[in-house]
Amino acid sequence: MDIVFIRELRADAVIGVYDWERSIRQTLVLDLELAWDNRPAAAGDAIERALDYAAVSSRVISCIEGSSFRLLESLAEEVAELVLSEFGVPWLRLRLCKPGAVLQARDVGVLIERGNRPE
Ligand SMILES: Nc1nc2c(c(=O)[nH]1)N=C([C@H](O)[C@@H](O)CO)CN2
């Protein structure tokens, strides 16, 4: 199995469980590892056969920026579902971080894996 990855993708959203969080936008940071067979793209040097990380990034940013969940867990599921269904990715690992949410921590967030990981 090969991986196409996107690291430290940033997008702003309404996100949070507290009242004060419902009227502001906060920056979220996302890492994605996407299972893909890169050999057909490499053999043909063809973007049509590649998993286009620019297209995935753009779609994920648009999803996050249009969202208004309370929990990171809910947003992570939504992003995972759209990447699996719209891009034909069989498996992914997604880390969604909310920097600054806990002052004493560098970072907090959720890490999920969805789909079936190919051999
Ligand atoms: N597991 C989670 N814990 C917490 C979340 C969350 O989304 N998932 N959110 C909050 C608050 O919104 C917090 O980020 C405000 O600083 C607390 N815990």
TrEMBL record:
Q: Which GO terms describe its molecular function?
A: dihydroneopterin aldolase activity; isomerase activity
Look up keyword Lipid biosynthesis and say if it applies: no
Gene Ontology biological-process annotations: folic acid biosynthetic process; tetrahydrofolate biosynthetic process
Tell me the keywords, alphabetical order.
Answer: Folate biosynthesis, Isomerase, Lyase
**GO CC annotation terms, alphabetical:** cytoplasm
Record domain Dihydroneopterin aldolase/epimerase: where: 4-114
Q: Which InterPro entries match?
A: Dihydroneopterin_aldolase (IPR006156), FolB_dom (IPR006157), GTP-CH-I_C/QueF (IPR043133)
Can you name this protein?
7,8-dihydroneopterin aldolase
Q: Which organism is it from?
A: Kineobactrum sediminis
Gene symbol here is: folB
